[in-house]
Every structure is written in C-alpha cells, then in structure tokens.
C-alpha cells in the first residue's frame, strides 16, 4: 500500500455533561482525527490525547505537531507500507504513543478496507457483542451520584465505575452499595490520586466487594503498587502504568496488578494492544478496554478490540450518548447492556460528512513528496 497523504482534522465536541476526575473537569473535547489517503481509499484514526498534559504528557497540539513534523513524513516516504511496518518505521521517534496510535490506526483501517477485512476479525475477536460499562465522574454530592448511577443502570449498563480521589472514596462507594446492592458490578478509578501513605484509607474499600481499584498510585510506581497489593483484598488494576507489552510484563512479574486496563491510544496502537492482550491471556490476567471519551471513530475500534477472548470484564465502551448528543458516526447504542461489534471492513464505520463538517474547526493536508 502506498500512501498519498494524511489529513489532520480537528473537531470541537461538547460533552452532554461535565466529566470530573482527579485531573479536573472536562466540558468539551478537542478531537484530533487522522485520515490516511491511499488514492484508492481512506482510513481513519482518532488521537485520544487531551487538551492539556494532565492524564499523560501528551496533549492535542503536541500530537498534531509530532505527526506533522516527524511521524507522517516517515510513513509518506515509504515505498510500500502495511500496518506491521508502521511501528518499526516510527520507533526512532521516542514516546508520543497517542500520536503514533492515531496514525497507525488510520493506516490499519485503510489497509483492511482495501482487503475487505473487519478490524475485529484481523485482531482475533471471538464475539460479535461486548458488555458495556460506564464511567461515572466525581459529583458534587452523594444524592447527585446516586441519581446518575440509577440513570445509567436504567439504560442497561452492566458495570459501574466510580471516579475517586482523596475525600471522595469510601462514602460514595458505601452509598452506591447500600442503594444498589452487592450484585452490582462495581469498581473504582483513582487516576493516580493516592500515595503509599494512603494504604489504610484504600483498605477501607475492601468490604465493598469491588471488582478492582484502578491506578491508585503514580504511573511509574510499580513497586509501590506491588506493596499496596499485599495490603488490600481488592484487586489492583493498572491503567496509566501500562504503556507497552513490556511494561505489562514487568507489572505482572512484580505482582503490581491482578487486572490490566488496555487503552490502545495509551500503548501506541491496536497492534501493541493485541500483544498486551496475548501476554495477559497467557498469564491468566483478565483485561478490559478503557475509554478516553472517544467519538464513534475511536469507539468502533475499541469495541472490536474488546471482543478478544481475554477481555472478560466489561469495559468503558459506553454508548455514544454517554458523552455526546451528536456523534460523528452513526451512534453506538446499547442493546441488552452490550454494544455490537462493527462488521464492516476496517473499523466498520465512517464519519457522517455533514456532521463532521459542522464540528470541524480546522483541517490540514500532509502530502507525500
């Protein structure tokens, strides 16, 4: 496959409600899409970087710049390209995994469309539907939280994830358990908001039969997570710490986690995500697919990934309406608490031209020379 160019498309996507985590409050998502053009067809990828370097060191302007100056030129200079060659071609550029994931996904989508192969089949999916969970942000009050959880359960979500931080942890978990019972699949996400000195406080979550506590400590503190795991009954899941298959192998070997959250954008793309899946599957470590407020472009690819066999826990593969009143693709909708895996070639969805045009704030064409 020979690339003719890439197009960087920036969108402004208002959220249906403010989404608060320990990193801050988000009301609008600045979206970067990458469109790969082969001359015979196109492919789409979505960059999951935020507007500011809070969740990770990457942010949207940074991702666009590194694609423009360093990533796209390397791929556009290649005589022939397939998805497996993207990673090695971009390896000399250190870091920038979210930018690399967006570019690789666009190439992968174009390559699969040209062959009529769905992404799910290419990755090795074993299901045509995946169970959906929902992430509930930090609220101003417990009654507000309980109303939000009740609404999501009424919509059919099969698992609830509560964002927590110091001062908002045991009480919201207790309130949700008391209101909705022990059968509710419930987990919490700390987004690295705690320190090892908070071990006793985190242990207060043990009586509530949580599926897991996600990323309680700093992303580079594997030893701290391993020590914390020895003091908690609640399984520890790592998110920000898992940046590659090698990082996942180290975390598992150290006993730093019992569960892994795989976010393709965080690890550099869906091929590395599949390698992490295979590693965890071989070690009997359950995985689930995290979310980054993706549009339908990113959500389609995540749902395809979540259909692989080691994804045994519901992921953050929510319906489009969880975050957006208007998605840029046909919306993903819950049916029986699950989302259907796209069956069309590549990621299986396309942006709706009129909607894309309405929400686009800028476009930039990067041509082969």
Describe the structure.
By secondary structure, the protein is of the alpha/beta class. It folds into 2 domains: 5-116 and 351-367, Enolase-like, N-terminal domain (Enolase-like, domain 1, 2-Layer Sandwich), CATH 3.30.390.10; 121-340, TIM Barrel (Alpha-Beta Barrel), CATH 3.20.20. It is built from 13 helices and 13 strands. The strands form 3 sheets. A 7-stranded parallel sheet has the order 5-6-7-8-9-10-11. A 4-stranded antiparallel sheet has the order 3-2-1-13. Strands 4-12 form a two-stranded antiparallel ribbon. Strand 8 (213-214), helix 8 and strand 9 form a beta-alpha-beta unit. The longest helix has 19 residues, at 97-115. The model has no long low-confidence stretch (mean pLDDT 95).
Descriptors for this entry?
Enolase-like, domain 1, 2 domains, 369 residues, alpha/beta, globular, 13 strands, TIM Barrel, 4-stranded antiparallel sheet, 13 helices, 7-stranded parallel sheet
In summary, what is this structure?
With 369 residues, the protein is an alpha/beta fold.
Q: What's the structural domain tally?
A: 2
Structural class: alpha/beta
The CATH superfamily label of the largest domain reads Enolase-like C-terminal domain
SSE order: EEEHHHHEEHEHEHEHEHEHHEHEHE
CATH topology-level fold name of the largest domain: TIM Barrel
> Which stretches are poorly predicted, pLDDT < 50 over at least 5 residues?
none
Number of helices: 13
């Amino acid at each position: 496959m020979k690339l003719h160019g890439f197009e960087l498309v920036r969108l402004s996507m208002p959220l249906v409600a403010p989404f608060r985590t320990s990193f801050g409050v988000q009301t609008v998502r600045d979206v970067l899409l990458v469109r790969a053009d082969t001359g015979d067809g196109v492919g789409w990828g979505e960059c999951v970087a935020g507007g500011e370097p809070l969740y990770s060191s990457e942010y949207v302007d940074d991702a666009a710049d590194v694609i423009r100056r360093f990533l796209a030129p390397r791929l556009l200079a290649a005589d022939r390209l397939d998805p497996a060659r993207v990673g090695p071609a971009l390896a000399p550029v250190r870091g920038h995994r979210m930018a690399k994931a967006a570019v690789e996904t666009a190439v992968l989508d174009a390559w699969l469309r040209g062959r009529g192969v769905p992404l799910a089949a290419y990755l090795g999916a074993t299901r045509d539907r995946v169970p959906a969970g929902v992430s509930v942000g930090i609220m101003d009050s417990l009654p507000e939280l309980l109303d939000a959880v009740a609404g999501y359960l009424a919509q059919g979500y099969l698992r609830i994830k509560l964002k927590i931080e110091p001062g908002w942890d045991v009480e919201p978990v207790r309130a949700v358990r008391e209101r909705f019972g022990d059968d509710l699949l419930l987990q919490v996400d700390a987004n690295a908001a705690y320190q090892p000195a908070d071990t006793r406080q985190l242990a207060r979550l043990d009586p509530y039969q949580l599926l897991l506590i996600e990323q309680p400590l700093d992303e580079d503190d594997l030893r701290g997570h391993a020590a914390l795991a020895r003091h908690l009954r609640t399984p520890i899941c790592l998110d920000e710490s898992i940046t590659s298959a090698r990082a996942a192998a180290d975390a598992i070997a150290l006993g730093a986690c019992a569960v892994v959250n795989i976010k393709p954008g965080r690890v550099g793309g869906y091929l590395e995500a599949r390698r992490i899946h295979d590693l965890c599957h071989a070690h009997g470590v359950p995985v689930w697919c995290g979310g980054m407020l993706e549009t339908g472009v990113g959500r389609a690819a995540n749902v395809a990934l979540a259909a692989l066999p080691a994804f045994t826990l519901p992921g953050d593969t929510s319906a489009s309406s969880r975050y957006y009143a208007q998605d840029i693709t046909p919306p993903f909708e819950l049916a029986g608490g699950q989302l259907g895996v796209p069956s069309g070639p590549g990621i299986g969805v396309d942006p709706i031209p009129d909607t894309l045009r309405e929400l686009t704030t800028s476009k930039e064409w990067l041509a082969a020379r």
